[in-house]
Amino acid sequence: MFKKIFIGLIILFVVLQFIRPSRNISDAAAVNDISTAYNVPADVHETLKKACYDCHSNNTRYPWYTNIQPVGLWMQNHINEGKEEINFSEFATYKKKKQAHKMEEVVKMIEKNEMPLSSYTWIHKDAILTDAEKTAVINWAKALESQIRQQITE
After folding, report:
1. Rounded CA gap, 49 and 94, in Å?
2. pTM of the entire structure?
3. Where are the beta strands (DSSP E) in 66-154?
4. Cα(first)–Cα(last) distance of the chain, in Å?
C-alpha cells in the first residue's frame, strides 16, 4: 500500500512539472510606474526594488527554485495577490484617492513588520529592511500620501 502511494506521489510530482504559471516579466517601459508620477528618492527606490517589486510590480526576479512545481505555482499566487494589493508599475493609473490610501497602507505594513513577508525574507535576505530603510520608506510614503491628499482637495 505504501509503495503504491509513493509511486502515485512521484507520478503526480512529475506531472506537476509540466504545469507552468505565466511569468511576471514585462519588457515594456514602466510608463505608469510610481517613479514616473512622483518623486521617489534614489535610496527609497532601491529599497522598493529589492524588497517590494518582486511581488508588487510587473517584473519579478525569479529564483531557480520557482522552476520546481508546486513552488512556482505557490510563488505566482503570492505575486498575483501582491499586485492586487499594490502594483508600483501601475501606480500612476490609480485614482488619487486610491494612491493616497495605498501609501497609508505601505506605512502601516512596514510599521507592523508585515512587509516584506517573512516567508519572502527567509530566502531573500537582501529584502530584510534595516531600521534606516524602514524610516526612509515610511517618511517618503507619509509625505507622498500628504501630497496626494493635498491634490485631492485642490
Report:
1. 20
2. 0.83
3. none
4. 72
Domain boundaries along the sequence of the chain: 2-153
| Digit-coded pLDDT (tens) for 85-122 | 999 999 999 999 999 999 999 999 999 999 988 888 88
Contacts of 131 (CB under 8 A, 6+ apart): none
Q: Say which residues have a Cβ less than 8 Å from residue 74's Cβ, sequence separation at least 6.
A: none
Q: Which amino acid is at 81?
A: E
Q: Residue 29's CB: how many other CB atoms inside 10 A?
A: 8
Q: What are phi and psi of 6, to 5 degrees?
A: -60, -45
pLDDT < 70 regions, the chain: 16, 24, 27-29, 154
| Burial letters 62-76, b for 16+ CB under 10 A, else e | eeeebeebeebeebb
What does the chain come to in residues? 154
Return d(Cα 106, Cα 145) in angstroms, integer: 10
